[in-house]
């Protein structure tokens, strides 16, 4: 298997720090080009599928993407996500039931959501995930186009075929290192082999898209960036380098963060002919390809170059709160409203109030409110 060979070889690639500019534009010109791009994306989306006014915010962003967290539990303990002292889990009775998830998903899809992504905690530890996917699949009749999942892949390789059969179309696999020892350091657990197996099954499957998420941490896995890029040579995958983000209890330190622009310069030093790949509509990653390679790589630069102007995401936490921004601690409980007997119309009003309170952009990296916001594991990435 090409992947195994790659990890075994553990390519010893050096990290030349070559600094060159990628664009001759002034910062004002870049900002206005970004705004134009965001506006044209919104227009493209308008043309594709109508969205209820409850899902349109005051900055005209149309929210057609819902991320649903299925659980607060996880079978790994990644240091950048989970506080070292662990987290207090909500009692089971406070979590959304399968029926409540389906009711809300139906309401969102009928209001214009076309993409659903399941996350967690680790979504595969939720009992009945295969049935949840099958039920979500029935929402295609109302306009749902894709069902994705973000998973650490630890217990996925045997179950993936059934999830795909039930309707899963997109998989994002979190794999921060190709080195089993570093894997244990990062996740505080064993299981690197199992994740590679899941990746292998995914690559041989009929999934529409397979992506690898890599949170890049200075002096830990930043030296592996070229190895991950090399995986896109033979495999039609996207590897996405994510900037380390601050959340409650994750000991974020600016010095541990590697800006995407620095990574790109590093990759360009090795591959001078990298080309910008077209962005998917509302994709958070800026993507690139190397001529002749089957896949692509990209950067999720939430810290150094946020993508708030084209953000189309809403989040539903496992305990039923709607969150309109990863970095905004404000939440509204759809669970409590449902359990008090609210009608679909009343739920939609609450969703509309949450959406209209969405800020234009999140705070800069030093000012993000990590005190009142949840740890990442309780939001879902
Ligand atoms: N357990 C699943 C997984 O790891 O893929 C899904 C949940 S996890 C919270 C979702 C994504 O968030 C993962 O790709 C993870 O790498 C990313 N993530 C978690 N903490 C992060 C942080 N502090 N900065 C950047 N990305 C983070
Ligand atoms: Fe678990 Fe995913 Fe968080 Fe790692 S990133 S601790 S796998 S929820």
TrEMBL record:
Q: Which residues form the Radical SAM core domain?
A: 58-279
> Reaction(s) catalyzed by this protein?
GTP + AH2 + S-adenosyl-L-methionine = (8S)-3',8-cyclo-7,8-dihydroguanosine 5'-triphosphate + 5'-deoxyadenosine + L-methionine + A + H(+)
Q: Which UniProt keywords apply?
A: 4Fe-4S, GTP-binding, Iron, Iron-sulfur, Lyase, Metal-binding, Molybdenum cofactor biosynthesis, Nucleotide-binding, S-adenosyl-L-methionine
**Gene Ontology molecular function: any one:** cyclic pyranopterin monophosphate synthase activity
Q: What is its EC number?
A: 4.1.99.22
Tell me the cofactors it needs.
Answer: [4Fe-4S] cluster
Q: Name one GO biological process term.
A: Mo-molybdopterin cofactor biosynthetic process
Which pathway, metabolic or otherwise, does it act in? Cofactor biosynthesis; molybdopterin biosynthesis
Q: Which superkingdom?
A: Eukaryota
Q: Name one Pfam family in it.
A: Mob_synth_C
* Key word 4Fe-4S present: yes
Instruction: Output this protein's name.
Output: GTP 3',8-cyclase
Organism, per UniProt?
Answer: Agrocybe pediades
């Amino acid at each position: 298997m090409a992947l195994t060979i790659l990890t075994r070889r553990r390519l010893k690639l050096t990290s030349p720090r070559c600094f060159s500019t990628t664009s001759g534009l002034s910062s004002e010109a870049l900002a206005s080009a970004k705004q134009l791009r965001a506006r044209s994306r919104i227009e493209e989306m308008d043309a594709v599928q109508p969205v209820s006014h409850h899902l349109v915010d005051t900055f005209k962003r149309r929210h057609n993407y819902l991320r649903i967290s299925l659980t607060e539990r996880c079978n790994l303990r990644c240091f950048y996500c989970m506080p070292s002292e662990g987290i207090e889990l909500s009692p089971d009775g406070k979590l959304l039931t399968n029926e409540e998830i389906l009711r809300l998903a139906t309401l969102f899809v009928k209001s214009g959501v076309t993409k659903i992504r399941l996350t967690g905690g680790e979504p595969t530890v939720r009992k009945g995930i295969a049935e949840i996917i099958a039920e979500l699949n029935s929402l295609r009749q109302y306009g749902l186009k894709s069902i994705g999942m973000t998973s650490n892949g630890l217990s996925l390789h045997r179950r993936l075929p059934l999830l795909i059969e039930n309707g899963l179309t997109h998989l994002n696999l979190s794999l921060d290192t190709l080195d089993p020892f570093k894997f244990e350091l990062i996740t505080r657990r064993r299981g690197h082999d199992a994740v590679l197996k899941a990746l292998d099954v995914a690559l041989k499957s009929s999934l529409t898209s397979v992506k690898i998420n890599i949170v890049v941490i200075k002096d830990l896995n930043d030296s592996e960036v070229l190895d991950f890029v090399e995986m896109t040579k033979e495999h039609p995958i996207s590897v996405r380098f994510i900037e380390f983000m601050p959340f409650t209890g994750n000991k974020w330190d600016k010095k541990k963060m590697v800006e995407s622009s620095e990574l790109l310069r590093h990759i360009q030093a090795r591959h001078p002919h990298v080309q910008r790949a077209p962005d998917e509509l509302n994709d958070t990653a800026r993507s690139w390809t190397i001529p002749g390679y089957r896949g692509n790589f990209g950067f999720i630069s939430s810290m150094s170059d946020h993508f708030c102007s084209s953000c189309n995401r809403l989040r539903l936490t496992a305990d039923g709160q709607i969150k309109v921004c990863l970095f905004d601690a404000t939440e509204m409980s759809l669970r409590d409203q449902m359990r008090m007997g609210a009608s679909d119309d009343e739920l939609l009003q609450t969703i509309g109030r949450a959406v209209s309170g969405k800020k234009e952009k999140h705070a800069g990296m030093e000012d993000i409110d990590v005190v009142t916001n949840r740890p990442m594991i309780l939001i879902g990435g």
